[in-house]
Amino acid sequence: MNPYYRPLQILVATAVHRVAGPAPRYYRIVLFAAAIGTTFAFGVLALHLFASLPLAVAASVVAAAHPAMIESWIWISGL
């Protein structure tokens, strides 16, 4: 089996292509929505772990701005 087999990635890319065509703008919109969802989920987890809203927001901002996360949100191939 191919170690890079990602069925969800293929499904999302195919769905975006069928709905919006090959324009990069729509792939970036999907990536941006995924980034917002991931950051929000991380913030909720941080809030439950730290029980402090300012600390959870700070952790979410750091996680969202971390270079390891930004690369997968900026490049369309990260979809």
- Give me the number of helical elements: 4
Radius of gyration: 15 Å
Label the structural class. mainly alpha
Overall pLDDT score:
87
Q: What sort of overall outline do the alpha carbons produce when their principal axes are compared?
A: elongated
Report the span from N to C terminus.
21 Å
| SSE string | HHHH
> In percent, how helical is the residue content?
over 70%
Spans of at least 5 consecutive residues with low confidence: none
Biggest sheet architecture: none
How much of the sequence is in beta strands? under 5%
Number of separate strands: 0
Description:
The chain has 79 residues and is mainly α. 78% of the residues lie in helices and 0% in strands. The chain has 4 helices and no strands. α2 runs antiparallel to α3. The longest helix has 27 residues. The two termini are 21 Å apart. The model has no long low-confidence stretch (mean pLDDT 87).
List keywords for this structure.
mainly alpha, 79 residues
Give the SSE map:
Elements: H1 7-20, H2 24-50, H3 53-65, H4 67-74
Helix pairs in contact: 2-3
Short description, anyone?
The chain is mainly alpha-helical. The protein has helices spanning 7-20, 24-50, 53-65, 67-74.
